[in-house]
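Exercise (ungraded).
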Amino acid sequence: MVDWLRDATEQIWSFYREGLFAALGLGLVAPLLGGLIFAQRSPLLGLVVPELAGMGVSLSYLCFPLLVTLGWIQGSEPGEFVQTFGAGLGVLVGLVAAAALAPRSRDVATPLALLLVVAGALSEVFLLESTFHEFSEEWLHHGRLLTVRSGGATRVLLASLILGFALVWLRRPLLRNALDPDQARLLGQSRRAWLLVSYCLLGAFVSATVPVVGPDAVLPLLLIPPYLLRGLTRTTAVYALMNTLAGVASAALTFYVALARDWPSGPALAFSVILVCLTMRGTAAVGSRFRPSPPSPKLAA
Amino acid sequence: MNVARLEVRELQAGYGREVIASVPQATLEGGRLHVLFGANGSGKTTLARTFLGLLAPIRGSVELTPKGGRSYVPQLQALPIAIPITVAEWIELGLPDGWPREKRGGAASHALQQVGMESLAHHSLERLSGGQRQRVTVARALAQEARLWILDEPTSGMDRRSALSLWQLLSDLARDPARIVIVITHDHFDGPKHAGQTWVLEDGALSTRAVSHG
């Protein structure tokens, strides 16, 4: 057992080091960003944006031969810049389309749902029509967390660090605008400007990470911990900490699950995130049975 | 102490070009509770949002003197419960970013004490009853040291005892001449009893009638 574990660890370290670092970077901040999306009551946005980025990357694969023919770029496959540019373009075009489909309406859920369907279909079509068919199965449907290419981890870690720093630094105006937009305006904050800031953070982070790991390796971390951990704490600060803890633990567990069970990384990540969050919930439930409960708000008042 | 005054001139409030409420001229002074009545859809909330500056007037002006903060207490269902947040965190989030952390904490704690809710500072906002939540929103307005308060149907959905208690609290707080407290309500029973000045929005026009203290 010990030998097997040591061998497995060495194997993980040598072959999957880049992927592990990328997963830990994602696990550290993606759930925090997801918490902000939940605070804005727009979880559908968290679902759509990675799909839009995926569509953009697929488009970059489709257009790559044409760009080479035109002499704009060189190489045998789209590089990081082209893929990231494609992802960013996909997110930008998608969000502008959502805004155009729902003018003057607060409910953007319907256009976002429509975009989700369209982005998923176009991702498939673009890849099938491109000369990189083999890319589609692994990256688009299964995520590429285990086999992150050289330099991918640095890029994901850098994007995660920048996002983490921005979320901590701007937490008060971002949260205020998400939870209480009227109060934010009364304090002189522009609702549109801060919504734009939050969309830019989401769009930039997703555009930087999806080309490396695939949409299915971002979505579970973005959406599952913020939802499943909501009832575990009373304070926003502890909630953020729990999200980060669940993200990092899930990222590490993903590698064990994916290697031990030979699962693709996307589904392994979703399974791990759910398992970790439910374990945290279970632990909290058991702990609360043995702790003296605080007085109810009604009695306390 | 300066008496707070809200001067409204030739005001037309609404969305786009559609005028929903008009106020040729009105002056609301601090030191008494202003209660605004009106049927559903009469434009009370539109007018309130225009008073606060959340909605630009189509025509006319609204001027608050001396200048100061404005606080809006929305209807109960508009309170945030999307993510966990404690009462103290929520009050502090409504305070200016320029305030030092100690000042924000002190202001939140003192305001909760004033409305008799200090024991709930570290409770989840989500778990509070309707009446408790409204008291917390009043505490937030207090912490903000706002000059103009507008509360949108604060007693809606409350039992009679909680509603009476809130009316009493608002009535007491409105005695401070440095602040103007406006309550939008459908409560025709308790509202007039506590009002220092009653306003009625009817057919898109605002009018006032004096009533005696309850």
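Further reading is listed at the end of the chapter. For now, observe: Chain B touches chain A at residues 52-54, 69-72, 74, 80, 82-86, 89-90, 93-94, 96-97, 116-117, 119-120, 122-124, 127-129, 132 (CB under 8 Å). The first helix of chain B runs from residue 44 to 52.
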